[in-house]
C-alpha cells in the first residue's frame, strides 16, 4: 500500500493479487495462471487500464488484509466477502460477485441441517469453518455452546473434519462446496442458508492506495456494463445482474 500508482503499475506491467485458490472464486490453473471469477475480472479491468498481467499469491483469508497493509500484494481479489470489520480496514471496489453460504453435510443430511438456527438449537452440533473466514464470523455472531465451532485451516481439512465426524457440517460458500463435491465427493451440499448474511465482494485495496482504487473502480464500473463481464460471471456460475444491483454500502452492513 501507499506506493501503488497507475503509472507504476503500468510500468511494472503486473498487478499482484492475493487469492484463496477456492474455485470458482479463485483458482490456480495447471499452468500456474490465476483464474476464477474475481481474478478474471481484475485481469480484464487491469488490461483496460494498460496493466498487462495479474500475478496471484495464494494465502489464507485471515492474512489477506494484513498482507495488503504490509504491501505484500496490491489488491485482494479472492471473494473476501464485505463485512463491517473488513470494510473499516480497506477500500472495497464496486461489487463483482454476490453469493450464498451452504453446509456440506454427510450424504442424505441425516441431521436435516438447513439454517444457522438449526445449529444454535442443538448444542451437540459441531460446525467446521475456515480460520478467520467470513463463516467463522457468522458463528461468532450467534450464541453457541462450547465446542460447537471447529476451526480448520483450509477447505480440504474442512471436508476431512466432516468425513471423520469431527464436525457435523462444514460451512462455506455454496458454489465452493459444489465445486469441492466434484473433486472430493462423499458429502451433500445444502441449499443456500436462508439465515446467513448476504455475501458479496469486489477487489480490496489498502486505504493508502485511494487514488489507484478510484481509478480502478471507475474502470470496473464501465466494465460491469459490458457483455464480457456477463460471460466471466456465467463461466464461473455467478449472477452478473445481482452484482450490478449490489452496493458496497449494503454489503458492508454484514457482521
Ligand atoms: O470472505 C471470506 O472469508 C470467505 N470467502 C470465500 C470465497 N470463501 C470462504 C471465506 O471464509
From TrEMBL:
The keyword Transport does not apply. GO terms for biological process: ectoine transmembrane transport. This is Ectoine/hydroxyectoine ABC transporter substrate-binding protein EhuB. GO terms for molecular function: ectoine binding. It comes from the Bacteria. It comes from Acidipropionibacterium acidipropionici. Keywords: Signal. The keyword Signal applies.
Amino acid at each position: 500500500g501507499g506506493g501503488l500508482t497507475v503509472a507504476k503499475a503500468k510500468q511494472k506491467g503486473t498487478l499482484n493479487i492475493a487469492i484463496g485458490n477456492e474455485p470458482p472464486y479463485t483458482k490456480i490453473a495447471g499452468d500456474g495462471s490465476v483464474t476464477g471469477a474475481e481474478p478474471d475480472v481484475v485481469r480484464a479491468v487491469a488490461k483496460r487500464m494498460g496493466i498487462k498481467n495479474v500475478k496471484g499469491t495464494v494465502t489464507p483469508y485471515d492474512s489477506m488484509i494484513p498482507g495488503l497493509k504490509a504491501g505484500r500484494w496490491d489488491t485482494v481479489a479472492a471473494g473476501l466477502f464485505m463485512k463491517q470489520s473488513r470494510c473499516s480496514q480497506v477500500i472495497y471496489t464496486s461489487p463483482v460477485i454476490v453469493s450464498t453460504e451452504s453446509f456440506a453435510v454427510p450424504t442424505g443430511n441425516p441431521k436435516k441441517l438447513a439454517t444457522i438456527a438449526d445449529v444454535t438449537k442443538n448444542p451437540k452440533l459441531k460446525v467446521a469453518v475456515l480460520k478467520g473466514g467470513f463463516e467463522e464470523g457468522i458463528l461468532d455472531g450467534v450464541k453457541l455452546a462450547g465446542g460447537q465451532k471447529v476451526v480448520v485451516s483450509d477447505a480440504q481439512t474442512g471436508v476431512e473434519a466432516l468425513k471423520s465426524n469431527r464436525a457435523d457440517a462444514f460451512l462455506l460458500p455454496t458454489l465452493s462446496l459444489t465445486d469441492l463435491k466434484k473433486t472430493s465427493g462423499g458429502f451433500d451440499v445444502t441449499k443456500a442458508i436462508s439465515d446467513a448474511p448476504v455475501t458479496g465482494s469486489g477487489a480490496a485495496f489498502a486505504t493508502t492506495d485511494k487514488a489507484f482504487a478510484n481509478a480502478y473502480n471507475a474502470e470496473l464500473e464501465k466494465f460491469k456494463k459490458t457483455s464480457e463481464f456477463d460471460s466471466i460471471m456465467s463461466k464461473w456460475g455467478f449472477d452478473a445482474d445481482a452484482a450490478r444491483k449490489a452496493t458496497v454500502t449494503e454489503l458492508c452492513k454484514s457482521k
